[in-house]
Every structure is written in C-alpha cells, then in structure tokens.
Design a protein that fits this description.
three-stranded antiparallel β-sheet; about 180 residues; four-stranded antiparallel β-sheet; mainly beta; single chain
C-alpha cells in the first residue's frame, strides 16, 4: 500500500546575514528594518515590529516610529520571507532598546513695559508645541521663585521695583527629557 501524498515540499530560502535595525533608537525617531541578502532573489517581505518580543499592533511596515511606550523596552523586527514554490522563512533582528529623546529648547524673552502695575509676557521661540508638549512658566525675582506666578504673563508689583525679573520656561513630554 502507498500513503496519501504529502503537501508539496518547498525549497528552502536562506538569509545572510540576519535582518538588522538601523536608525536611532530614541522617542520620535524612525527605525528601519534591513533585510539582508536572500537566496533565491526576488523574494517578498512582510514585517512585524516587536516590543519585549510581543507584536506591536499596526507596526507592520519596513519602518517604525519609536514612541514613549517603547522607552527601556527591547524592540526587534520579525521579517517574513516568501516566494512561490519555497517554504516561508522567518527571521528576527537583534533588539534595539530605545531611550528618551531631547526636546530642543528655543529662546525665551520678556516683552512689555517694566513698571509696577504693567503686565509682561514670556515669549518663547521656536519651542515645539505639537505632540502634546506641555509648557510651564515660573517667574523669578532676583533669582527666587515668585509664588503663584506660573502663567505666560506676569503683572509687576511694587515688590518688583529695582529687582531683576526673569521667567523660566520648561517644556515636557512623555518619553523626552525636559528642556
């Protein structure tokens, strides 16, 4: 007696070297999967980015934008290689562990008339305001914080006469170092 036929036995696809990740592993930066050299040629690739070896939902293209959720967690990419008549092969890159990125600070100036009773304003240029960046103000008199003076504007008082007034502006965003 003869058994039933098996499924078609496909030829093997081989890789050299293992896929890698290029780019800066930091929040807001783009990582790219580099597939390596494959035999035979003209193979098709699909990608799945992994965080802590688990699939990241919707992250299935050759590039990946690093998010705050990725900080301190190893990222790798699973590359699926296929071609008609060959057995599909899967390879995983070595991981890259993202760190926080730096927010680029702009300049801060004070505008307005420097006289008791007048309102002055902290002007920031060109600070990032996209992506939910939070900007915090703290007004200072002779280097010391003025209690409750935490808005972009400040009304000068008699206590400010003869003092040096400054404003400290802090920008923050999850996954980034504050500036």
């Amino acid at each position: 007696r003869t058994t039933a036929a098996t499924a078609l036995v496909g030829k093997a696809i081989t890789v050299s070297p293992t896929p890698t990740i290029t780019g800066t592993a930091a929040v807001g930066k783009v990582l790219t999967a580099v597939t390596g050299a494959w035999t035979p040629s003209n193979v098709s690739f699909t990608y799945q980015w992994l965080r802590n070896s688990s699939p990241i939902q919707g992250a299935n293209t050759v590039t990946y934008l690093v998010t705050a959720a990725d900080v301190g967690k190893p990222l790798s990419v699973l590359v699926s290689i296929s071609k008609h008549g060959f057995v599909t092969t899967y390879e995983v890159s070595d991981p890259a562990t993202p760190s926080k990125s730096y927010i680029t600070a702009g300049t801060v100036n004070i505008s307005g008339v420097m006289k008791a009773g007048k309102v002055i304003k902290g002007i920031t240029r060109p600070w990032v305001t996209a992506l939910g960046v939070k900007i915090k103000y703290q007004w200072l008199r002779n280097g010391k914080e003025i209690k409750y003076a935490t808005k972009s504007t400040y009304k000068l008082t008699a206590a400010d006469s003869g003092a040096k007034i400054r404003v400290r502006v802090t920008q923050s965003l999850s996954g980034y170092y504050s500036a």
